[in-house]
Write the structure tokens for this entry.
Amino acid sequence: RSLTIVPVVLPSIMVAVGFVATFGRNGTLNAVLGALGLPAVDLLFTLEAIVIAHAFYNAPLVARVTTAAWESVDAGAIETARSLGAGPLRAFVDVVAPQVYPAVLTGAALTFVFTFGTFPIVLALGGFQLATVEVFVYRLVRDLSYAEAAALAIIELVISLGVLLAYLRYEAQSAVRSRGARPLPRKPLLPSTPTVREWVSRVGLAAYVAVAAVVFLAPIASMILASVTGGDGALTLEHYRFLAARQRTAAAFQVRPWPAIRNSLGFAVGATLLALPMGVVVAVLTTRRYRGRKLVDAAAMAPLAVSGIVVGLGLLRGLVFGVEVAGWRVTASGAVAIVVAHAVAGYPFVVRTVAPGLEALDRSLVESARALGASRARALRDVELPLVWPAVVAGAAFAFAISIGEFTATVVLATGADAYTMPIAIERFIGRRLGPATAMGVVLLVVTGCSFVVIERLGGESRGL
């Protein structure tokens, strides 16, 4: 599970850099093939590279959804089928598969939504010759064709929301089916005295670990290796020295590393402070019993189906260009719009992290607080939130990580060098020199990891207080 979940925490632009470092003409794959005496391959700017990258990015999502369904399979139904004479294969086909396939369809639907709305991976690995809807909308925005871009974005939004509604329907049906089910018993993955069948399982596990290491870890390892490797294959720090030199001598219109890091951290802090209360409030609304709850839940999930290009285009035409309110024209700088866009992208993950904890709380604790005179808001503050504080901290970490790696909306709203972030800097570098792009990717990886540690420490201290 740890190997499989790695791509989830990576910004999509970093995935693109890792795949360039792995599958490029001078990448890790060709180096290994050359050492084996095999001909080189060039997958960049091909449909194959884009498909592989999206499979890498979405496989953890499918695995997580399917694993949850597998763990909720009713063991009693399998035992009943076996007692009526069904063999293991027949029991799997007739009993297990019908309980699992809705989750497979759900994973497929979410993969479709996220791939349909992808942008940085296609832009880096396919360019405009393999442009998707997102890339084409971005091109129209760049050419100042805002009306055409808005029309195409609305078509994309309708398709994405339609698939999202189908996902919510399947999720609700799966939740109903799993109630009262007795889960399958867990068995040791590596028993001390394995049988022949268990040896086969061990071989299958080893094969999966090998594939996961190549597919999920190779792009990250290739990016790190490329950041410390020169053109002749020798270890060097020239790419990091290039970043340091760019910091001192870059022209006003060029991206410099330190402002990009500073902007990323500032935007992430602002987006987290905005997304966290939004997410907690929506989580409270989605865990209460009232008419229209499903509509609120669907609205809370909507940003997952709304692409960053659509959000960026909407904010560009609204906050940045200004809107008329009671005769006054309200405008906001690009930085404010970027923070808002990042908060919109991050708060659904806060909702999905905090809501399960609120659902599982003992309602008698809240009722006791209310009986002792606490208001609804005070019961939430003094009883519920302290009990789900680890989920709140986890939601903050998710919102921070999503903001610090967000690229799609930022590239639309970052109108000047002062608003460039680390993902924007990586995209600028990758179009010219791979080495500095990989070095900037490693910087982004380090900053993201350190930020997670700081958030967890601050969250733990606040909980203790």
Remarks:
- The chain is about 75% helix and 0% strand.
